[in-house]
Design goal:
Blueprint: E1 2-5, E2 16-19, H1 22-37, H2 46-55, E3 57-58
Antiparallel strand pairs: 1-2, 1-3
Amino acid sequence: MLSLTCRDAGFDCPEVIRGNTEEEVLQKAATHGQESHGMQQSDMTPELTGKLRSIMRQE
């Protein structure tokens, strides 16, 4: 299982997003960003996606 901590992505937020694949974590992160941080789908740039991939951890 992979995990991503919202705080590690630069947000003041304790949310931990988990999934079995990078794509699952990224999709959940996009949904969380939209629902909790007011982000738009267009905010999920290749640069942000790359950053999120780099801070994912294997549990």
